[in-house]
Write a structure and sequence with these properties.
Layout (H helix, E strand, L loop, with lengths): L21 E6 L4 E7 L2 E5 L6 H12 L7 E5 L5 H4 L2 H8 L3 E4 L8 H21 L17 E3 L11 E5 L8 E5 L4 E5 L3 E3 L2 E3 L7 H12 L5 E4 L3 E4 L3 H9 L8 H6 L7 H12 L1
Parallel strand pairs: 3-4, 4-5, 5-6, 9-12
Antiparallel strand pairs: 1-2, 2-3, 7-8, 8-9, 10-11, 12-13
Helix pairs in contact: 5-6
Length: 280
């Protein structure tokens, strides 16, 4: 069941003018990249892959006809290559600060982190190929050293209407955003909408934490959902959607993902978490 009966799907390529800001959707190499245009300035919701940095720059300067200095902050929701690859490039070129979970640089630390990063880059290329994209590099730094370290409940620096929700499951440090004033939730990879179906991301190395995160979201009063893989969805019954997603935890239907699953749990934070579970 795709869950389409849960709400009416509306896709916006450029505008979301019913809100007090405009949200632009930029098609990245793998993920949709959202750019918030408000009176506080421009806010980037994830920077995509390394090649997406140029796409973002071209959109801001060419389509919006605004200088890059108007981009005041970039969120990196988690460290996977289709979310963390572009922001460091834009920071180096234009000095734009990054906001991310305060422990995000632990995700790929050490030699196990290096191996995990290689696996995640392979998964990224698999996703791009499945979507018919011409191959691009997804190499990027395993550490981003954010200027603004985030914790759950923080207000996003410079953008007071956006609050940080730390929702582990897909990684340990997933940071999503909720705008309570306009009831808009940026889900990053918490939920995907692909090929007409709702699904959870792969992998989910922390199933218990994912279940807790989905239960937390079920109580969220949001009308609009921004998906890095699926675009913008409106008129959402969050409770029903999240309870539907909870039933998918533990399911891996893609044969390629089934083969890769053992290799997605070699990162240091994953192994640390499993050791703690065994000893408790």
């Amino acid at each position: 069941d795709s869950g389409l009966e849960l709400f009416h799907q509306v896709r916006y390529t450029v505008d979301m003018s019913e809100h007090s800001f405009t949200i632009h959707e930029i098609e990245g190499y793998i993920a949709s990249i959202f750019l918030v245009e408000s009176e506080e300035g421009l806010l980037l919701l994830d920077g995509g892959c390394r090649g997406d940095a140029k796409r973002i720059e071209d959109f801001i300067t060419g389509t919006l006809h605004r200088p890059m200095e108007d981009l005041h902050l970039m969120l990196v929701s988690h460290m996977h290559p289709d979310h963390a690859g572009g922001a460091p490039i834009l920071r180096k070129k234009f000095g734009i600060p990054i906001a991310a979970h305060h422990l995000v640089d632990n995700w790929y630390r050490g030699w196990r982190g290096w191996l995990q990063n290689r696996v995640d880059r392979l998964l990224a290329q698999f996703s791009a190929r499945r979507n018919g994209k011409k191959r691009e590099s997804v190499r990027y730094s395993r550490r981003i050293r954010p200027e603004f370290p985030l914790k759950d409940g923080d207000v996003l620096p410079g953008f007071p209407d956006w609050r940080v929700l730390v929702l582990p499951g897909h990684t340990l440090f997933d940071s999503c955003l909720f705008n309570g004033r306009e009831s808009v939730f940026y889900a990053a990879d918490m939920v995907l909408f692909m090929n007409g179906k709702f699904m959870l991301p792969f992998p989910i190395p922390f199933p218990d934490r994912m279940r807790s995160s989905l239960n937390r979201l079920a109580e969220l009063k949001a009308d609009t959902l921004l998906l890095a893989h699926g675009g913008k969805l409106s008129s959402i019954d969050f409770f029903t959607l999240m309870k539907t997603m909870e039933k998918q935890i533990g399911e891996i239907n893609n044969p390629m993902f089934q083969r890769l699953a053992p290799f997605t749990a070699i990162g240091p934070e994953i192994r640390k978490d499993r050791r703690q579970h065994r000893s408790s």
